Amino acid sequence: MTAVDAGLCARWMAATAALVTEHADELTALDTAIGDGDHGLNLRRGFAAAAEAVGDTPGAVLKAAGTALVNTTGGASGPLYGTFLRRAAKALGDDPTATATAFAAALGAGLEGVRRLGGAAEGDKTMIDALAPAVAAFTGDDFSTAARAAADAAASGRDATKPLVARKGRASYLGERSAGHIDPGAASSALLFEALAGLT
Amino acid sequence: MKKLINTPETLLTDALDGFAAAHPGLTVDLEQRIVTRPPSPGKVALVSGGGSGHEPLHAGFVGPGMLHAACPGEVFTSPVPGQVQAATEAVHGGVGVLHVVKNYTGDVLNFALAAELLDDDDIEVATVIVDDDVAVTDSTHTAGRRGTGATVFVEKIAGAAAEAGESLAVVHELAREVNARSRSYGVALSAGTVPAVGRPGFPLGDDEMEWGVGIHGEPGRRSGPLAPARDIAAEALDAIATDMPLTGEALVMVNGMGATPLIELYAMFAEVAHWLNARGVTVSRSLVGNYVTSLDMAGCSITVMNLTPRLLDLWDAPVETPALRWGR
C-alpha cells in the first residue's frame, strides 16, 4: 500500500481505541506501579472519543481525533496525544491522500509538537521513548513496511524504558524507585503504532 | 473495595449533584462540569481546578473571598481545556482572571491549552503554578515540585486581594509570593483507592508508612517502619526548614489526607507547634483538618508559610465558602 486516505486514518483511530480497551488493565497496572493508576481508564475514554472522528481528508480526521483527545482525556496524556495528532494533521494539510513519505513527515511534526509541549527528551522514561524511535523507523515508500518497522521500534522503545529512572511526568517523583517498571505512556504509544501496523 | 457510591462511573456526577443540593448559593453545571459563583464586575476572578478526589479542594473553596470557579476533572485526572475555558468565561469580571494550577504535568498542560483558547476570547489570564512539596528534592531532574497544601493558602490570600479590588498584576504577584513562602511535606499510613481501579494505589504493610507522598496515590520517596507522630513531625519540618528558613510568624496547616481522624491530626499539630516554638517560630494562624485530601489515604501533610503583615491581613479577611468561612 502506498497512499493514506481519510478512511485509513479513521480505521487507525478505531483500531487504537480497540487495542487500548483490550490492554486497559495492563496500562492501569503499569501506571499503578509508578503513577496514579488511571492511564488505562483515561486513554480508553479518550480514544473512544477519537474513534468517532470523521473527515474528508487524512488531515481532517486526525485533527478531529486530536481535538477529541484533548477535550475528553484529561491528565497529561490527553494534551500530548491530542497534540501529536493535531500537529500531524496540520502537516498533512488538505490533501485527499498522503504518500508514505508525507505521512512520515506528518508523524515527525507530531513528535516535535509532543516534545515542545511536554518538554521531555529521549531517556526521560516517557511516551517519547516509544514515539521517537517509531517515527524514526517510519521510512520508505511503502506504508505497510514503514508502519510495521515503526511498530517494532515503538515496542523496543517501550521495553527499553524499564530500567530507566523517570525524569518527567508523575513517575519522576519516585526517583530511583521508578526504575524496573515499563513506562505506561511508552506502552500506550506502542499500541498506537501497533494499531497503525495492523491496518494493512 | 468498600465505598459509599452507586457506581464508580457515576461517582463524580453524583458528588457534584450532592454539592449542588448542599450549596444552593453556588452554580453547578453538570454538563460542563464546573462550579461557579456569579461574576464580580470590575474585580479579578480566580479559577482553579484539578483532579477530583482532593475534596474539599477545589469546589469547596468557591465563594466570596476565595475562588470564583472550580473545574473538577475525573478522579486524580486534570480537567480538560474546555472546562477551564467555560469556567473562566462564566466568571470573569472584565479585568482579568488568575488561574491557580497545582504543578502536575496534566494540570499544567490543560490549563496552558485553556489559556491559549482564552487569549482568542480576549480574556486576560495570568497563571500561578503552586509547587510547595519539598519531598521532591531533585526538582531539576523531575517534573518539578508538586503542588499540595499551599494551594489553599494561595487561593485564600489571592482571593482576598481580588475581593479587595486589586489588579490582576497585584493578585498574581501575591499568589506567587504565597507560593514562594510556603513549603509542604506529606506522609501516608495507607494508600487510597481510586474507585474505578478498586485497589489501593500502592502496597504498604501493616507496620509501614510512606514518606514524602503526593496527593494522587503515587508512592513516595521511601517506605519505612511506622514512626511516632513526634518523629514524623520532626522529619517533615526538618525537610521544610532545610529548604526554607522559618522565622518570625507562621501560618501552619496540618492537613488530613482523607482517612485520618481529627484526633490524630491534633496530636500531629501538637508536635508541629512544639517543634516550631522550640525554634523561635510563632504559630500565628493555623488550620487543622481535611483540606487537600487524597481519597481515603490515611496520613497527613504539613504546610508552613512565613507570614508578612500584609499576607496575614489577607488571610484574616472575610471568606465564605463551603469549606472555609470566617469574618462575615
Describe the fold and architecture.
The complex is a heterodimer of chains A (200) and B (328). By secondary structure, chain A is mainly alpha-helical. Chain A is 66% helix and 3% strand. Chain A has nine helices and two strands, in the order βαααααβαααα. Chain A has a two-stranded antiparallel sheet. The N and C termini of chain A lie close together (8 Å). Chain B is of the alpha/beta class and 328 residues long. Chain B has helices spanning 11-22, 81-91, 105-120, 150-163, 168-180, 229-243, 262-278, 309-316, and strands spanning 27-29, 34-36, 45-52, 69-75, 97-102, 125-130, 182-190, 208-211, 222-225, 249-256, 282-289, 298-306, 319-320, 325-326. In chain B, helix 7 links the parallel strand 10 (249-256) and strand 11 (282-289). In chain B, helix 2 crosses helix 3 (105-120), helix 4 packs antiparallel against helix 5 (168-180) and helix 6 crosses helix 7 (262-278). The mean pLDDT of chain B is 95.
Topology of chain B as a string of helices (H) and strands (E): HEEEEHEHEHHEEEHEHEEHEE
Major beta sheet of chain B, specifics?
6 strands, mixed
Instruction: State the helical fraction of chain B.
Output: 25-40%
Low-confidence stretches of chain A: none
Low-confidence stretches of chain B: none
**What is the β-strand count of chain B?**
14
- Helix share, percent of chain A: 55-70%
Provide the β-strand percentage band of chain A. Answer: under 5%
CATH superfamily of the largest domain in chain B: Dihydroxyacetone kinase, domain 1
